[in-house]
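To the wet lab folks,

You asked to see what we're planning to order before we commit. Fair enough. Below is the target structure as tokens, and below that is the sequence we designed to fit it. If anything looks off to you, flag it before the synthesis order goes out.
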């Protein structure tokens, strides 16, 4: 047979198969726009503003609808009610992690962010406990964050009040907190190993957010036939894992069962205790992937929020002045802030919540999947179907937060100026997959921002009115525009 004829036949079969697969699932799945064969609904979405596309589609199809990414259906949850009904009321059923082929190639079912089933549950439980200080030896997590806050202000002092882009320094601090928790010690900001680790993680976050990686996740076969940034992603991941394996070997030689120094020690002790368990959750492979996850999930997220926070504080000097007044009143000028202070600082607490609400860092969270066939609002969602939650639709709900597009700490304050808790605050998502690092991230945001504002006045290099605070979505993350500022010592 002629090659061209064979190719045309092949393409036709693929088209028919794709049409058949898409229509066979549609009877039970929620409604949605008609997908194109093979491509699905990709062309109907604005990749630069997925959240806006989802809001527009929800106006036509309601709060629960189906989109096709390639030939794969994805059920979208839009608005507080739908997200709560799924992730909280049916928490177990909606607790699966959506399948991302690029990450799976590195993780192979290990770690915490991309794993599922028993391994996920156990690794998540272990990570949460360790990050909450259980079994982590003498030094508390708070102590480690305070140490980093001190080093951060020393580093900012070196800018001598001159204009600077804070991206690099604000990237170092959260990365170093994770280093201190995982490897026992922080690094100097100029340390070559530290800079190497940061470079590889930063590159990987950029690559993961790139359109090409979304294409690879939708059509995984392309990874095997085309060169591209996915290869750099695999190479960086392999290098980072080798470094972690080397560290684990070093730890093993000096392990003291009665005095674990860090996350690696805690994991190695558990590995020894569980060595006869058939399920083999505690393996060196799982350790390496869990550490990769904590770095990937815990560095760029916190540093981008800090960078967004400083931009919003520059834009709103009246808000900054009130936070500084509260710092003066509760902490004073000399003592380093601690977590106990937060409960006496309702305005600062509201400002940090509002920074996170406004920044809307992960507009569509990470993909979930249903762990069994599930009836949801009269639809039938088959086991394994991917679920996309629009966190933007909850964080920007205009009934809960009037004028959601405006930065206003009043969104989290009652009439008497007390902190007002909101169930709609889902910056860390909700339910069984809720961010493992929520406690740590909130600690870092509070301690870093209060320590900075205790020691410096922030000065914008342009009129604050001219500062643009509109986010631009960069793949998964919503990031602030670049800006410069001066840190003037008080
Ligand atoms: C401002 C900072 C942060 C934000 C806004 C944030 C937000 C999120 C969100 C939205 C998810 C997805 C939850 C879901 O699938 O429903 C997530 C997952 C996760 N985050 Fe965070 N995160 C932050 C910082 C951190 C830190 C500091 C760590 C750890 C050191 C961390 C570790 C994780 C892990 C391990 C997961 C996966 C949980 C799982 O799949 O069970 N995050 N985070």
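Sequence we intend to order:
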């Amino acid at each position: 047979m002629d090659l061209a004829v064979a190719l045309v036949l092949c393409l036709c079969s693929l088209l028919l198969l794709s049409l058949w697969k898409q229509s066979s699932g549609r009877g039970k799945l929620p409604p949605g726009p008609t997908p194109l064969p093979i491509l699905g609904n990709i062309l109907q979405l604005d990749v630069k503003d997925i959240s806006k596309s989802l809001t527009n589609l929800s106006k036509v199809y309601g709060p629960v609808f189906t989109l096709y990414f390639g030939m794969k259906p994805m059920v979208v949850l839009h608005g507080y009610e739908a997200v709560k009904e799924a992730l909280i009321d049916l928490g177990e059923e909606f607790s699966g992690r959506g399948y991302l082929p690029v990450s799976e190639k590195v993780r192979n079912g290990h770690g915490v962010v991309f794993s599922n089933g028993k391994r996920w549950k156990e690794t998540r439980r272990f990570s949460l406990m360790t990050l909450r200080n259980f079994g982590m030896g003498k030094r508390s997590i708070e102590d480690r964050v305070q140490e980093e806050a001190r080093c951060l202000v020393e580093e900012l002092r070196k800018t001598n009040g001159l204009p600077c882009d804070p991206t690099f320094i604000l990237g170092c601090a959260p990365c170093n907190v994770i280093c201190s928790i995982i490897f026992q010690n922080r690094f100097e900001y100029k340390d070559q190993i530290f800079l190497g680790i940061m470079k590889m993680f930063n590159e990987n976050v950029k690559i993961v957010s790139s359109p090409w990686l979304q294409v690879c996740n939708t059509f995984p076969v392309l990874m095997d036939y085309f060169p591209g940034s996915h290869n750099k992603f695999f190479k960086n991941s392999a290098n980072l894992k080798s470094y972690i394996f080397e560290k684990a070997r070093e730890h093993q030689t000096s392990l003291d069962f009665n005095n674990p120094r860090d996350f690696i020690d805690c994991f190695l002790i558990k590995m020894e205790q569980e060595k006869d368990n058939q399920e083999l959750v505690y393996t060196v492979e799982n350790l390496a992937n869990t550490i990769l996850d904590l770095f990937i999930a815990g560095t760029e997220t916190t540093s981008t929020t800090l960078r967004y926070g400083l931009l919003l504080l520059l834009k709103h000097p009246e808000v900054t002045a009130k936070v500084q007044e509260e710092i003066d009143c509760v902490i004073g000028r000399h003592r380093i802030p601690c977590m106990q202070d937060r409960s006496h600082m309702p305005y600062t607490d509201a400002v940090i919540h509002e920074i996170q609400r406004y920044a809307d860092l992960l507009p569509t969270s990470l993909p979930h999947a249903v762990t069994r066939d599930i009836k949801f609002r009269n639809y039938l969602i088959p086991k394994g179907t991917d679920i996309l939650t629009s966190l933007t639709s909850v964080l920007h709900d205009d009934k809960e937060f009037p004028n959601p597009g405006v930065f206003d700490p009043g969104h989290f304050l009652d009439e008497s100026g007390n902190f007002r808790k909101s169930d709609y605050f889902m910056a860390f998502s909700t339910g069984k997959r809720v961010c493992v690092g929520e406690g740590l991230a909130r600690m870092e945001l509070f301690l870093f921002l209060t320590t900075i504002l205790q020691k410096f006045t922030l000065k914008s290099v342009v009129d604050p009115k001219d500062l643009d605070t509109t986010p631009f979505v960069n793949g998964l993350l919503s990031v602030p525009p670049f800006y410069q500022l001066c840190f003037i010592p008080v």
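Structural context that might help your review: The pocket of protoporphyrin IX containing FE is lined by residues 97, 112-113, 124, 178, 293-294, 297-298, 301-302, 305, 361-362, 365-366, 368, 427-429, 433-437, 440-441 (CB under 6 Å). The domain at 31-489 is CATH 1.10.630.10 (Cytochrome p450).

Thanks,
Computational group
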